[in-house]
Amino acid sequence: MVPTQTESQPAAAASLEEADRRDLDWWIDKLVEGLVFIGGISAIVFITAIFVFITKEGVGFLGSRFDFSEFFFSQAWRPTSESKPTYGALALIAGTASVTGFAVLMAVPFSLGAAIYIAEFAPPKQREILKVLVELLAAIPSVVWGFIGLSMMNPLIIELFDVPIGLTVLNAGVILGLMAAPIMTTIAEDALKAVPDSYREGAEALGATRWQTIFRVTLPAARNGLVAAVLLGVGRGFGETMAVLMASGHSINVPDSVFDSVRALTATIAAELGETAVGSEHYQALFTLGILLFVVTFFINLTADLVVRGIRKS
Amino acid sequence: MAELAIRTEQLSLWYGTFQALFDVDFDVKKGIVTSLIGPSGCGKSTLLRSVNRIVERGGTVKTTGRIEVLGQDIHAPNVELVQLRKSVGMVFQRPNPLPLTIRDNVLFSTRLHRDRLSRAEQDEIVEKALSTVLLWDAVKDRLDHPARVLSLEEQQKLCIARLLPIQPAVLLMDEPCSALDPTGTEAVEELIWTLRGDYTILIVTHNMAQARRASDECAFMLMGKLVEHTPTDQMFVTPKHQETADYIEGRYG
């Protein structure tokens, strides 16, 4: 035993020395580590950069011309007025809120129904096909949705409800609901699939029917994921621009009914920013709308994320 | 001849094209503990899961032959799954309390099957069920806590307790102690023994010592066939078949 030990000691030292050598593999390892780090950190860099940029452009307005009560409580968005420009965003906020709210009302029942069917009832093959189709639906460009709203929904609404114009909260809400539904469905389905099968098995062994199992066990167990799904859908609706611009009528108005035309925050920025002089009051006011949107969507997504984390903890 | 709780006749079962049970004739007497032993994949869990037809959850399951529970053919068209599962309770390998409070777990089955009960009636049901499984003293102050906070042993006892309010005749147990430590195993075994008499208990186990000390009768299965079914004492002392003898002596399994 003893001689082998003395012999093995120099051998071990030699191999240690060898391990210390910075060969090609070592450098590749460092390089990949660096790349992955940059990839990981870039999200933080970009989000910070965007926030700083928007704030920088909007802060001039916030510091001087901005009037809280005018901005939030006045309907008068007249940034191009020669004599006295006013910046009341109430109608724009109401436009975005009404369209998003209507869209969520439309999308939630459909999405939950679809998610429950795909997760709980569909046979495996059908499930795969449906998931792919739902994800394809999410990949349709928003301008195509806007086109559908403008050229198909518009005459349809005029015909069906006998109203003078079809570019309304109803139109934009339906379009936005269809756009938000795939995201909600996918996330809600994931949440339902994450419920352990032993819960369903246990409930069924106690004599629960499939519906009783779903309503009393699976849905409550997936509650957090379902809330997150709805919130992410809301976030999607809130930030959507092109489809809303095309389908909502784009008129400044606090809606009384779903047959009123409205104008969304996002659509306002998209339509007006190209017409303004960089650095002008109007330009800065549009960036202030951007800050508002950014903050609201940030909090919606943050809430959704925290809710999802809530599931993992329990 | 004692009255039978479960009786199978020429029972064969296929998962898709794989045959898991071959012409099983199996009689379980009322009011005693019968254990099913055999190596992994011998079909003992499949047989157990056929009795409340939970085996059909898997999808492509085909059954031939007959299963009677308390004299009633459970594949007859007039048998409702809900009714069957009301009279045949099941305990799973891993404790699977529902994601509800302790109280709601116990009340889950009564809420499925009966009209609304008054708060006092509910309290009585909860106390009675939890007392029967010797869990009442441990949890009576935290009935509104989620069931997941209990230890595995307590969870498994709760899973037994939640079967009791609807008064099943048969309790199926699929390796109920395999997720528990030795203390928990002992406690649950004792509990099973106290339930004997009021309930017919069919228990699948991997643990031969458990089968030996905690069952009245014992059935040995191998490759989807029922090899031998005798009183437990007899099986472990004088097994009739060579395969049984080899298995209980630990030559395979």
Could you characterize what this model shows?
Chain A is mostly helical and 314 residues long. Chain A has one domain (77-313): MetI-like (MetI-like fold), CATH 1.10.3720.10. Chain A is 77% helix and 1% strand. In chain A, strand 1 (77-78) and strand 2 (86-87) form a beta hairpin. Chain B has one domain: Rossmann fold, CATH 3.40.50.300. Chain B has a six-stranded mixed beta sheet, with helices on both faces. Chain B has a four-stranded antiparallel beta sheet with strand order 2-1-4-5, with helices on one face. In chain B, a hairpin with a 2-residue loop joins strand 1 and strand 2. Chain B is globular. Chain B starts with a strand and ends in a 5-residue tail after the last helix. The mean pLDDT of chain B is 89. The chains are: A mainly alpha (314), B alpha/beta (253). Chains A and B meet through helix 8 and helix 9 of A and helix 2 and helix 3 of B.
